[in-house]
Design goal:
By secondary structure, the protein is of the alpha+beta class. It folds into 2 domains: 41 residues, Arc Repressor Mutant, subunit A (Orthogonal Bundle), CATH 1.10.10; 75 residues, Lrp/AsnC effector binding domain/regulation of amino acid metabolism (RAM) domain (Alpha-Beta Plaits, 2-Layer Sandwich). The chain is built from 5 helices and 4 strands.
């Protein structure tokens, strides 16, 4: 990946709906070589896909909760089943296996505290093998950024 690829990626991160002509003009290439570079970036897995960023507040998800989870067991089977269970819970929008005091860090999007309580009772607390969890409500997002190029 060279500097031109990085410029193309920066344009796409800012606006994934930009036309080939717009991208080319921004980086100083014509449409054909620009398209060829984008295709190669897709094939190499650098570009994983194209998506739309939604405003959580605008769709009624007013609270973000960071949940730290510790499991009873760390066997491959337990970790795999836990991951599969999390994947089936739409409110869990990110899940990380982490080092440190807890095993997982989850980012959860909910309507409000009652909705989070419902999620805990109906979904999270029913997952077998959770030893301990700790929740923190996000009060304000100070930084949200694309990957640095």
């Amino acid at each position: 990946m060279d500097q031109m690829d990085r410029k193309i990626l920066a344009v796409l991160q800012a606006n994934a709906r930009a036309s080939l002509q717009e991208i080319g003009q921004s980086v100083g290439l014509s449409s054909s070589p620009c398209w060829e570079r984008i295709r190669k970036l897709e094939q190499a897995g650098v570009i994983e896909g194209y998506t739309v960023r939604l405003n959580a507040q605008a769709v009624g998800l007013h609270d973000t909760v960071l949940v730290q989870v510790t499991l009873d067991s760390h066997s491959d089977n337990t970790l795999e089943k836990f991951g599969e269970t999390l994947a089936a819970i739409p409110e869990v929008i990110e899940a990380y296996l982490v080092s440190g005091e807890y095993d997982y860090l989850l980012r959860v999007a909910v309507k409000d505290t009652r909705d989070y309580e419902r999620l805990l009772r109906e979904r999270l607390y029913k997952i077998k093998g959770i030893r301990h969890s700790k929740s923190s409500f996000v009060l304000r997002t100070l930084k949200k950024a694309d990957l640095p190029l």
